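Side project, low priority. Logging it here so it doesn't get lost.
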Amino acid sequence: MFSTAFLDIPALAGASGTVRLPGSKSISNRVLLLAALASGTTTVHDLLDSDDTRVMLDALRALGCGIDAAGSTLRITGIGGQLKPGGPMLPLFLGNAGTAMRPLTAALSLLGGEFELSGVPRMHERPIGDLVDALTQLGCRIDYLGNPGYPPLRIRPVDHGALVLDAPIRVRGDVSSQFLTALLLALPLAARKDIVIEVVGELISKPYIEITLNLLARFGIAVQREGWERFTIPAGSRYSSPGDIHVEADASSASYFIALGAIATGASGQDSIRIEGVGADSIQGDIRFIEAARQMGAQVDSGPNWLDVRRGAWPLKAIDLDANHIPDAAMTLAVMALYADGPSTLRNIASWRVKETDRIDAMANELRKLGATVDSGPDFIRVHPLERPGWQAASIRTYDDHRVAMCFSLAAFNPAGLPVRILEPHCVAKTFPDYFETLFSVAQAPEVPVICIDGPTASGKGTLAAEVARLLGYHYLDSGSLYRVTGLAMRRAGLSAEPQHEAQIAALAAALPLHFTEGKVLLAGEDVSDEIRTEAAGMDASRVSTLPAVRAALLALQQRFRQLPGLVADGRDMGTVIFPDAALKVFLTASAAQRAERRHKQLISKGISTTLDSLRSDLEARDARDSSRSVAPLKPAQDARHLDNSQLSIEQSIDQVLNWWQEKQPFKPA
């Protein structure tokens, strides 16, 4: 998951391959709560691992549920609809998870304890008054701790014998379907007689209620439905564990890759995006996004647990759609509309305004930054397509809304070949922590940006490059470790740096499963950082570096590190030999005296005895060898920026490189 302040997505030109989606947030949190309220143990397979589910799990642990995790499988031992008596007031922080706040408000109101429910500031702006009104009709005791109608809330215990069950419980359905879902999930706790719920106004997002009813049936609650206006929970209803339950992949998340196939796979039909984990027979309403995508021209094939998508019509066809049935996935259509043959209108989407942010305003604002003409109103948005000359490079504000971030990644396929900057990309952790990694695994870019940082030994280039890579969310290549790792692989294979073993060593070098992270060198997942820094490893590195086939293999290996969204590479010939077309080349240096002092401190901290004079002599001698060698000598690239960090802190050096990088970007301030 990207934890950077922003993520620059270079211009993307195509996409093909297979993606496996995470579990559905809507299904995951419903299943977790039902398993917690039921008796016995429920084994949940393929659960979504995200911010929202972690919030729910933390709350359930606090309530006394037994939770045993093993990978994507979870065993939940429920509380059987009863809390242990006499517990203290329990504060629960629920972040910005509406799928936790609303159902837990209802369930905790009937469980008999005392609770305080709070969240992030945006959660305290998301309405809950209609749900609280419905619960207080029943006799529940709920107080607002801030603005009336909004969290945070104080919930006090109530005697079930005092609940008013004779009259129907009335709840509005035109603001959020989560209010009705919360009542349906929680009211079996109090069903000593039939409980009737009546929906006031038109019920929006009906497919989400279908998910709720489907899952309640799996847990033994057979709700009787009369249209979409009246729901009856039968007297004596009891939650019963189904034993095992599988969570479908998230249909809302599928929308981004359905759109990707429609936009990016090309008209030849040779390539496609295959989506695994969800099919057209999904119980999730957002799977009907397929219908809208087909209307716009996408070709979609489906099986029991997969979708296959490719471009059909191009440009896409404009649509005018009542999107009430796919409120989350419809956001993706607003970005697809940029690639259409006329204006597209999404109607009946008032619920967008009470989501993680006001999504109508958010989408309109950010689409305009890209250059689009957008009209919007209380419950609609109209997006005009963009011709190539009209596209603009934009910094997309995400409003801490995961769906805004994911939608606008699709703008990187613009015909103008412009990059897109996504601010606060980590917000996708709410439902799809690995979204960008998944996107980059199937997307292709005409040019993946590279920053090269070359320089002499002990100049600090490794520390600088690794931190720049972290801040940009780019991959990192520590080229200086490659010959050392090759030497280690050679020794482990029982080979020696002799001509008769050259081909075998080159084959090892070409396939090194290397990864650099958090200052560590990982070989097939094993941390070999210390092992390759020994004197013996250095000698092995020197020997293998003389073998031409090994040098050629490592050249190809280094170039394969150039992957989306970008690469920062450090070494001695990154900008001159390995990546001569790099967008930014930095030649980092410092005086021999300063470098010797840094190396001296480093060695002394490790308990290695040495002197400043000897270190300085060694560094000067190595500089002379490196700069005069016949193959790839140490020298600045002609277009390199020179950075002498003799008197700079690492933070100052990082700032300078990032400033140079920003100068090359086309983005206007967000």
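Brief comment: The chain has 21 helices and 33 strands.
Revisit when time allows.
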